[in-house]
Amino acid sequence: MLVAERSLPYDILVIALGSISNDFGTTGVKDNCIFLDSPKQARRFHNEMLNLFLKFTSNANDDKEKVNIAIVGGGATGVELSAELHNAVKQLHSYGFDGLDNQALNVTLVEAGERILPALPPRISATAHQELTNIGVRVLTKTMVTEAKPGGLHTKEGEFIEADLMVWAAGIKAPDAMKEIAGLETNRINQLVVEPTLQTTRDPNTYAIGDCASCLQPSGSVVPPRAQAAHQMATRCYHNILAQLNGQALKPYVYKDHGSLVSLSKFSTGGSLMGNLMRGSVMVEGRIARAVYISLYRMHQIALHGYTKTGLMMLVGGINRVIRPRLKMH
User: Fold this and answer.
1) Are 189 and 173 in contact (CB under 8 A)?
2) Which of 97, 222, 300, 327 is the most buried (most CB within 10 A)?
3) Is pLDDT at 131 greater than 50 in this prediction?
4) In angstroms, rounded to a whole number, what is the distance separating the alpha carbons of residues 73 and 54?
5) Is-contact 101 89, C-beta < 8 A?
6) Distance between CA 51 and CA 289 in Å, rounded?
7) Residues 21-39: what's their mean pLDDT?
8) What is the pLDDT of residue 271?
9) Would you give the distance in Å from CA 138 to the centre of its chain?
10) Per residue in 145-163, is it b (16+ CB within 10 Å) or e — as a string?
11) Contact, 228 vs 271, CB < 8 A?
């Protein structure tokens, strides 16, 4: 503990603790799968992946099997990671990892739902599915994992998916410490239930935004745990706090879907734009989608750091692409 326990008085509290991976109580997941909730966990995955590849190439004269990696969850995280692994293999081969190529890598992406990328339109989902298949990823839909063991995953259908490295990216929940915190109402995944104004149901002076908040929309749907939703919530929360302090009426938060994009590393990019702001969605793929994907990332940086710092980060990033290796080996 860095500091002693203490109390901090407040008039208005905003809770924005985000979310963590939800293993849904699946046996063995916590002990055998890697989550990607923090930089520490991402570094662990990075190190274990490199160790696997190094072990594979060091046994060049042996009769060796493929490097088996399983990813559970066909959302954006799982899909993008599946593609990036194949790109990483190509980069590692240029570093002298002899015998390591896409034929030596066996990536299995497991999704319990009907299709991968359920938040995107079916056309984009089908395109991503086909692209992943083309680069060698085995995509399993309508497949539920029932147990994770040191050597792989058991599915409800009775299949055992061999895996040397397993990543769990299937669903989210609010941190366990959030459940009924301070007597506030929470749902089954520990999210704070909020009014349309983003005030918690049992305390008007406590707001919750982002992934740790459960906000019901007029349509009956719940605001999805997405970055654009958290950004919008923060803006509405700010204005509602000012209104509360000034004795004015608070306005409800209404989620506006501006669309989604998914990047399949260097292989492809696709998604939909505008969402419910238009009658239907505008589909974008290929280089146009890639340009929009990067632009949205820059807009996010500008919102956090401002134009000057973002410009400097772009300059440094451009220089690093020339002088630094494409893949970190540590």
Assistant:
1) yes
2) 97
3) yes
4) 26
5) yes
6) 34
7) 94
8) 44
9) 20
10) beebeeebbbbeeeeebeb
11) no
Q: Is 324 exposed, middle or buried (0-12, 13-18, 19+ CB in 10 A)?
A: exposed
**Cβ-based neighbour number of residue 173 at 10 Å:** 21
User: E strands of 111-195, at which residues?
Assistant: 138-140, 145-149, 152-155, 160-162, 165-168, 172-173, 192-194
Q: Which amino acid is at 17?
A: L
Q: How confident is the model at residue 293 (pLDDT cuts 50, 70, 90)?
A: low
- Ranges of beta strands (E only) in the chain are 13-15, 20-21, 67-72, 105-110, 138-140, 145-149, 152-155, 160-162, 165-168, 172-173, 192-194, 199-200, 203-208, 213-215, 259-264, 268-273, 282-285
Tokens of 23: 């293993």
User: Is 192:184 a contact under the CB 8 Å cutoff?
Assistant: yes
271, 293 contact by CB (below 8 A): yes
Q: What share of the chain is helix, strand, coil (3-state, %, to 5)?
A: 40, 20, 40
Distance separating alpha carbons of residues 51 and 57, to the nearest angstrom:
10
Query: Residues for the chain: how many in total?
Result: 330
The C-alpha angle with vertex 78 and arms to 34 and 172, in degrees rounded to 5, equals 70
In contact, 236 and 256? CB cutoff 8 Å: no
Mean pLDDT of the residues in the chain: 85
CA gap 193, 190 in Å, rounded: 9
| pLDDT > 70: percent of the chain | 82
Instruction: Give the position of tokens 């706090």.
Output: 241
pLDDT tens for 34-52 read: 999 989 999 999 899 888 8
- Classify residue 90 as exposed, middle or buried by CB count within 10 Å of its CB (0-12, 13-18, 19+): middle
